[in-house]
TrEMBL record:
Organism: Suillus subaureus
PROSITE patterns in the record: ASP_PROTEASE, PEPTIDASE_A1
Family assignment from sequence similarity: Belongs to the peptidase A1 family.
Domain of life per record: Eukaryota
Single biological process term from Gene Ontology: proteolysis
Taxonomic lineage: Eukaryota, Fungi, Dikarya, Basidiomycota, Agaricomycotina
Signal peptide region: 1-19
A Pfam family annotated for this UniProt entry: Asp
Residue span(s) of domain Peptidase A1: 75-391
Name of this protein: Aspartic peptidase domain-containing protein
């Protein structure tokens, strides 16, 4: 029997019965996490930052790990490290697996901090960090503690303004090579350690995002060890991790995409990634979508722009994943208009969230379903069964944008 703490629910700010992830009900453990749009320096070119991340993910530019964090916008977890704990604001990232601190708030060593003597280094599409590996106590909520989690103590960082580091919940293989003196060693992730220490019954992470129209808001939930039936409707549809490289390195899946009844992307491999903002598709799919919608490229933001008349005529964008179809409604295909000026756009403009990945389909990395996609569905990252799942939520058809 697992303790009550084994079914952790973390609030976010930003098969057979035996194989099915455990559902969480009335979990007593919560941790606020915020969605944050970092515009402290003025307006931002969000697409530019996002594309840097996607390029690094797609081109596999890393030494063992492809942690490439979009430091401009994302979901932030308040995580305790040490005893007594210091709280750090960490980006929740399914596209990387190292957990590290020190970008803003310095790592505070306590009696539980153990220097492993290992240099750690990770390159990013829009930044980097290097430093020293420690093991330390990590606290994710009352009653939920990891006693010896690998923590990177960053001595140098680039591109992480306003955050302290990353909480990496990607596949463990992404950590291989990040310890420069031990390039074949893989570092257990927080999910791995929660399982190995007997705190959770399965290596499963459930994620719920709600669409947001403000810079910072508590509007989601992260669950370790199971799924939260209160956060989705209907059944969770699962699909296996793709075998196609390089997408298989990440939380990669196969899908096809149709706009209305028109196929814009035949079944192919890509990834699901909380650290990417927009929805990226292969260049040929992007051009078909642009043509079908009548959109033009906006010079200020780089995003696709439609008129009010064109917006009224938008059709559903359908994602065929396994035996299920998930649809982005017309409203789900646009950037929140209340945030237009924060990314250098016009307050009354209508921008689409679909962007060009930069290469034609067939590369083995033909789409990235970023968090503007994930905000409309409940998602499950199931290491135990090598699969990803999706379900509808109360926000799937919302008109919040």
């Amino acid at each position: 029997m697992f303790p009550a703490a084994s079914l952790l629910t973390i609030l976010l700010l930003a098969l057979s019965i035996a194989a099915s992830p455990v559902e969480i009900r009335d979990s007593p453990i919560t941790l606020p996490i915020a969605r944050r749009l970092n515009v402290s320096g003025g307006t931002i070119n969000l697409l530019e930052y996002d594309k840097a991340r996607v390029a690094a993910l797609k081109d596999d530019r890393h030494i063992g790990s492809i942690a490439v964090t979009n430091e401009v916008t994302g979901y932030i977890a308040a995580v305790g490290v040490g005893s007594p704990a210091t709280t750090y604001n960490l980006i929740v990232d399914t596209g990387s697996s190292n957990t590290w601190v020190g970008a803003d708030t310095a790592y505070v060593k306590t009696s539980t901090s153990v220097n492993t003597g290992q240099p750690v280094d990770v390159g990013y599409g829009s930044g980097s960090f290097s430093g020293t590996e420690y093991t330390d106590t990590v606290t994710l909520g009352d009653g939920l503690t990891i006693t010896a989690q690998s923590i990177g103590d960053a001595s140098t960082t680039e591109g992480f303004s306003g955050v302290d580091g990353i909480l990496g919940i990607g596949p463990v293989g992404l950590t291989e090579g990040t310890l420069t003196n031990s390039p074949t060693v893989m570092i257990p992730t927080v999910t791995d350690n929660l399982y190995s220490e007997g705190t959770i019954p399965q290596k499963v992470v459930g994620i719920f995002f709600g669409p947001t129209t403000s810079q910072t808001i508590t509007n989601g939930e992260l669950s370790f060890g199971g799924t939260d039936a209160a956060k989705y409707t209907g059944d969770i549809g699962y699909t296996s991790i793709t075998t196609t490289n390089p997408a298989s390195t990440y939380w990669g899946i196969n899908e096809s995409i149709t706009y209305g009844s028109t196929t814009i992307l035949s079944s192919t491999a890509g990834i699901v990634d909380t650290g990417t903002t927009f929805l990226y598709v292969a260049t040929d799919a992007y051009n078909k979508y642009k043509s079908e919608t009548g959109a033009t490229v906006d010079g200020a933001t780089g995003l696709l722009l439609v008129s009010s008349t064109q917006y009224s005529a938008l059709k559903n964008l359908n994602f065929n994943i396994g035996s299920n179809t998930l649809s982005l409604t017309p409203n789900a295909q646009i950037w929140p208009r209340s945030l237009n000026t924060k990314i250098g756009g016009s307050s009354k403009a209508i921008y689409l969230i679909v962007a060009d990945i930069g290469t034609p389909s067939g590369s083995g990395f033909d789409f990235v379903n970023g968090y503007t996609f994930l905000e409309r569905f409940y998602s499950v990252f199931d290491t135990t069964n090598s699969r990803v799942g999706f379900a509808k939520t109360s926000y799937t058809d919302a008109t919040t944008n």
